[in-house]
Amino acid sequence: MDRWTGKVAVVTGASSGIGAAIAKSLAKAGMVVVGLARRVERVEALRYDLKDEATRKRLHAVKCDVSKEEDILKAFSWVEEKFGGVDVLVNNAGIARKTSLVAPGNTAMLREVIDTNVMGLVMCTREAFQSMKKRSVDGHIVHINSIAGHNVPNFPGLNIYSASKFAVTALTETMRREFSAEGTKIKVTSISPGAVDTEIITDEMKELGKFPMLESQDIADAVLYAVGTPPRVQVHELTIKPVGESF
Questions:
Q1: Which of 58, 149, 157, 176 could make a disulfide contact with 165, Cβ separation 3.0–4.6 Å?
Q2: pLDDT of 60-107, one tens digit each?
Q3: pTM
Q4: Who contacts 88 (Cβ-Cβ below 8 Å, separation ≥6)?
Q5: Are strands 237-240 and 187-193 parallel, antiparallel or unpaired?
Q6: Distance CA 200, CA 93 (A)
Q7: Three-state secondary structure of the chain
């Protein structure tokens, strides 16, 4: 991670869970971290979890709902004005809404998942890529995907969530090809965890049976590994399962 010291990382969905763990880990590693979140006060509170003053000063909070293009454009414009641009982007923001695909009147919930998990990821990547290309930066885009983006789990209520994560799997490869076609050395990585003990794992899902879960820090460590690889190495897909998982 030495080559990223002082460089700028943007982390979406940084207010809790995996995003919070990633934001703190990148700040500890010496990066300037901009945490985007709707609940911006939670990102600001993360500073209290960081021990030294220098690390706390490297963590910044910006209010942003990634389902809204105007929020994304405003956030990345702020990053450019404040720090010059983006070097690493971690697309972590993701939601699930409890409904079935065939339930009446659920269009708003389904669209919210797609707008956040797919369109938000695409728009944030677009803005970060343009920032990196303009400055000739060999940056890194990391998507926090899911094993649900490779196999559909049998969990009631996940509905369109798995489809949104399958889209992330396809988008990762599409972006790799586009980045190469643009003549850049910008990397893109998909990290697909199994069950992680976060807000997405509902009490109802837990009641279906005891199953092993990862911790948010496990995913943050994977991000550090992927981003910390030498320039010649691109970790394209990294799947992480807790020991004993049977999905």
A1: 149
A2: 999 999 999 999 999 999 999 999 999 999 999 999 998 899 999 999
A3: 0.93
A4: 4, 7, 8, 9, 10, 26, 31, 139, 140, 141, 142, 227
A5: parallel
A6: 11
A7: CHHHCCCEEEEECCCCHHHHHHHHHHHHCCCEEEEEECCHHHHHHHHHHCCCHHHHHCEEEEECCCCCHHHHHHHHHHHHHHHCCCCEEEECCCCCCCCCCCCCCCHHHHHHHHHHHHHHHHHHHHHHHHHHHHCCCCCEEEEECCHHHCCCCCCCCCCHHHHHHHHHHHHHHHHHHHHHHCCCCCEEEEEEECCECCCCCCHHHHHCCCCCCECHHHHHHHHHHHHCCCCCCCCCEEEECCCCCCC
Angle (nearest 5°) at CA 113 between 111 and 115: 65
Structure tokens at 202: 């509902």
Distance separating alpha carbons of residues 228 and 200, to the nearest angstrom = 28
- Of 76, 155, 161, 179, the catalytic one is 161
Which residue in this structure is represented by tokens 């049998």?
154
161 is catalytic: yes
Instruction: pLDDT band for 201, please (50, 70, 90 cuts).
Output: low
Q: What percent of the chain has pLDDT over 90?
A: 83
